[in-house]
Amino acid sequence: MPFFRNRRLFIFLIGFIVLVALIGYSLRERDNVTMVEQFINDTVGWAQNVIHVPVTFITDIISNIDDLRNTYNENQILREQLGQYKGLIYEVQELKEENEELKNALELTESDSIREFDAIQATVISRSPEQWLDEVTINKGKQHGIRENMVVITAEGMVGKIQTAQQYTSKVQLLTGFDQFNRISATISREEGNDIFGMIEGFDNETGTLLFRIIEESEKDVDEDELVVSSGMGGVFPAGMVIGTVKDVVPDQYGLTRTALVEPAADMYEINHVMVLDRAAAEVEEVEEEEEE
Amino acid sequence: MKRVYILLFLFLFLILEGVAIKFLPSSIVLSEQMMVPHWILLILIFVAVFFDKGHTYHAILYAIIFGFLVDIVYTGILGVYMFSYGIVVYIIHSLKKFLHGNFFVMLLFSILGLILSDLLITFIYDLVGIIKVSWEHYWLDRLVPTVILNLVFFIILYPILVKRLIAWGSEANWD
What we know:
The structure holds 2 protein chains of 2 kinds.
Chain A: H1 2-27, H2 35-106, E1 118-127, E2 135-138, E3 151-153, E4 158-165, E5 170-174, E6 184-188, E7 196-204, E8 209-214, E9 227-230, E10 242-251, E11 258-264, E12 273-278, H3 284-292
Antiparallel strand pairs in A: 1-2, 1-12, 2-5, 3-4, 3-12, 4-5, 6-7, 6-9, 7-8, 8-11, 9-10, 10-11
Chain B: H1 2-23, H2 26-29, H3 39-51, H4 58-75, H5 80-95, H6 103-128, H7 135-174
């Protein structure tokens, strides 16, 4: 039997070497996932779609019945708000025209603007059961114009970015799984150029908040409940996407800079429909490297 | 032919693991406690005990294949599930010589397999630096809820699978 025992050990060691090699391979900076992975991901995604459709059909019916009950009250409130909007519409139109004129004066083209983007609608079809990694899969892929690093939002705010894009499905890295390799340049908007700039540097699991490091240190105090939006300076994400609200401000471990704890505006757990924003800038490629440093 | 059924069954649950969040109330599944479905592992343990004979190793082969698929589809970090599932199913396969396969022995095997595989997976992720694990929180926040969720699944699965796997096993090993 010693031969058999040795063979067992041999197989175990080979398995271990294969494990290390595979992990090393997948942790490498990969621009594109391999064809095999794309094919498997798309096949599974297709099957998940098949199961997903009838399930959402039933859950939608149930939530529709719920909605019907609240409709009357909501209608009253909305009607009141509608009155206020009429004034706003006029104001917005004026501002738009003025903005257009000023842009023309500066000779800015459409693609230069950091607020321009196309939205691609998508549905979440599955969530990674491995909950250490906060990933969801959506039912749109390269064929629909989705590329890596695009920002993903819901109606409430930003939820994450595209991790990998396959032909017909893509994987989204949620904000809750962000680390120092996935920074977002963000800002707290103030009047008269007193904006506060900084970086979203990661997610703190204990407090359930994003860490917003304030880069430019000054006397300006950050108040609670202030809105943090993306600044568009990282180059990948468009400007003005709502990220969350400030919950608390704490000094960092060296006492040199301050970090604001930002509560994400979007619900990271119940995500069904999302929009992927394609910032139609031509120089996305060069900007990606800057983002990843 | 019977092997194809097992493969299809495993593939079905590979898909369901990801969609399960839609079936289960997400307030429970996605709260502070992490519940991770290891349904494929449970089915593989059943296959190892009831389908395989002492000298056949189908379950381990399936564990490696489907572990690899889980890696590709749900994590993107290849090899971790493949290695963990492979090792755990191999251990169960060697343990079944000593214990006869009844309900309580299966329960024991499942708990053992779940704890071992989840520990291995977490340990490997922690080692290569993908996540930072606070081990004092790990036991109560992740391991216990995960084992409980999967044991519920185990109780549902047991009456459905056992007789069929034994029948398929004796048929498949004759030819």
